[in-house]
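Morning run. Coffee first, then this:
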Amino acid sequence: MGTMDDQPAMEVQVLAEALNSQQPPVVLDVRDAAEFAEYPLLDGAVHIPLAELPARMLELPAETWIAVVCRSGGRSAKAVALLNDHGFEAVNVLGGMAAWTALQG
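And here it is:
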């Protein structure tokens, strides 16, 4: 995992491996539901739009690390900063669902 402006970040390939590991992350998708037509919600992902995250972050498990995705990585970076400021272990997935979809071929 690398960092972006001192923020934890990972490539989509690392996320794919992590999802098949002994300690998979919770995947948090912070896109608006209208965006799912272009890139569907990942199986098993939690959907909380970025605008709703401050009020809904307690819906997320505090004991599991969180991989945050959006369309391309910008909103997820904001979500990671917010979550990490509140004691969560969150990581930004670089390239977001656009990169994930390209990886899946």
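The CA atoms of residues 12 and 99 lie 7 Å apart. Good start to the day.
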